[in-house]
Amino acid sequence: MGQQSLFEVLKGNHYPGRGIVMGVATDGKTAVMAYFIMGRSENSRNRIFVREDQGIRTRVFDENKLTDPSLILYAPVRVLGNTTIVTNGDQTDTIYEGLKAGKRFAEALAPRTFEPDAPNYTPRISGLMQRTPEGFQYELSILKSNKGNPDSTLRCFFCFEHPLPGEGHLIHTYREDGNPLPSFEGEPIAVALSDPIDAFSEKLWDSLDSHNRISLFVRFLHLEKEAEETRIFNKNS
Hints:
seven-stranded mixed β-sheet, globular
């Protein structure tokens, strides 16, 4: 399938869960990345994104409504040198420490599997965006159960070298809403990237189901200026 509209893909999915977008803007010199979270339970919805160092962290919005912090509180974004790590769980820290120790992306994730939230067994999705002297390259990963069987893990990795200007890729946790929730299937979805960061961020936020969306992080990395722009949207404020 060819390149699709990121916004239309998300508008057509009532509950994609958590999602990562990575790619390069049309100028070929700006990396684009985004991470969004959605939730159905009160515990999942009781979160916000906050800046922390060069990355972000999820925090509880209302302490009185917190029931289980184990899978909702983590650092989705961390930066190590010229590498930005984006994930949907505490495997951000696993990757960060692995890269520091000289491991590659897949090696760093070797100890991890999907989330222990039966019967959904939510996939762990992760991404790396690396700035090089020549431009950007990125990798995406999904660790998921084999058709809902917790005794079998599928480890899928996708590397995008010399990415095409104006193209990005979307990966998310759930194929659609359901009970149990069906895991994402297939390759990351090729999507078109355009617009300045504010227009892009607002369109992306508006594409997410207004009832289930919780927070959105967007970052543009500029190669020539070695600068970054970040936007954060929180439903709870």
